[in-house]
Amino acid sequence: MFLWGTATASYQIEGAVSEDGRGVSVWDTFAGEPGRVRDGHTGEVACDHYHRWPEDVELMAGLGVNSYRFSVAWPRVQPTGSGPVNQAGLDFYDRLVDALCARDIVPAVTLFHWDLPQELEDRGGWLDRDTAHRFAEYAAVVADRLADRVPMWITLNEPFVHMVFGYALGTHAPGRTLLLDALPVAHHQLLGHGLATAALRERGAGRVLITNNCTPVRAASADPADVAAAHAYDTLHNRLFNDPVLLGKYPDMSAYGVRLDCVRDGDLDLISAPLDGLGINYYNPTRIAAPSGEGLPFTDAGITGYPTTAFGWPVVPDGLRELLTGLKARYGDALPPVYVTENGCSQHDEPGPDGTVDDRARIDYLDGHIAALDRARAEGVDVRGYYVWSLLDNFEWAEGYHQRFGLVHVDFATGRRTPKASYHWLRERLAERTGADAGPREP
Ligand code: GBH
């Protein structure tokens, strides 16, 4: 069965940050610091999903998706990131999983979507090798409770973004600005993925994936300096997190002054344990030019000539086909089935006078990307799922509540949910395709 779903993440939707024994996460700390998040927004209440989840499950049932990707907040399960388990935190996910199963919605659990327990960060966070072991312990705890009903597990969400924004540039929690010295964060997350995969396997957890955000990279021109820079970017963005998992080795990064001294014997064997799928988050392609002198081996040249989202990101649907067929060309038989675990766009959506939310640009975005997905499948890429980011407007990290990605509008003052036009459109589209989804549409 092809999985059609929506995706969310714990800190972005749950709220209830001090309820039922939840510990503090790096995002609570970061968002609480002045100047970190636009207008000082925090995830304290967010979509109040922690209390409103039954309504959210009904929204998904009404939409007709057959899967839901959500993340578990580590500090709800282990408030300090290690040791004592908070059963009340696990109970929340237990109830959610039961409700999804009752609605025939396959739960796809992401174990880490960036909300590290603060206490682990205080001990070095992902710069510290021990965090990988703590992550595997936490994965085991969650699997012990949920693996009997959850058939699909995603260890990490976008370790690239977490490393770059969180530890290299400091625009996300934990707000560190280490530039290329953040590289151990890549290895320790990947090691955590490998160790967690082993823990999940021991518990018969079903399908195990990692989700990487990938971007097709284009050189700004045919100039060899631009081409070399594009190669560097592709290596550091795409290959750094896919090669170790799929090929059991890191790409050669010596030309960029990057060394991974923290890799120990046996690590890559753990990291490259076979997976049941690769999760891919796609938003847009990237155009790269030769470095302009800020210490990195490339510059983002920006893409012009395409419409943009409210975030300013270019809308290039065929980039999804290009990305997927490119992965197939690069990894061949080493590429497991692919699940597009996020795709979507932000807009300035507000209800009109009649109460409806007319987000036709989102409809165009999704329509274009689903068509590109079909083309990739027709070209032989084994794609098995597609999740829209996101079910609800939610806390968009450093942008706070200023970017709305939802199929459902959320009034953050009242928590009120209003399905947008895209929700109604997708419901019809899914209804048409159910049953016909085993392969690409006939042209
Ligand atoms: C995902 O990250 C996250 O998993 C999710 O939590 C988040 O809410 C969602 O996407 C939306 O942001 O500078 O124009 O080239 C997405 C990672 C990194 C993708 C920045 C787009 C650059 C666009 N993004 N990237 S551009």
TrEMBL record:
GO biological process, one term: cellulose catabolic process
Molecular function GO labels: beta-glucosidase activity
EC number: 3.2.1.21
EC main group: hydrolase
Pfam families referenced in this protein's UniProt entry, alphabetically: Glyco_hydro_1
Alphabetized SUPFAM superfamilies for the sequence: (Trans)glycosidases
Highest taxon above the source species: Bacteria
Active site: E158, E342
Residues annotated to bind substrate: Q12, H113, N157, Y283, W389, E396, W397
Catalytic reaction equation(s): Hydrolysis of terminal, non-reducing beta-D-glucosyl residues with release of beta-D-glucose
Keywords in alphabetical order: Carbohydrate metabolism, Cellulose degradation, Glycosidase, Hydrolase, Polysaccharide degradation
One GO cellular component, as annotated: cytosol
Secretion signal span: none
PANTHER family xref list: GLYCOSYL HYDROLASE, LP05116P
Family membership noted in the UniProt record: Belongs to the glycosyl hydrolase 1 family.
Protein name: Beta-glucosidase
Species per Swiss-Prot/TrEMBL record: Streptosporangium sandarakinum
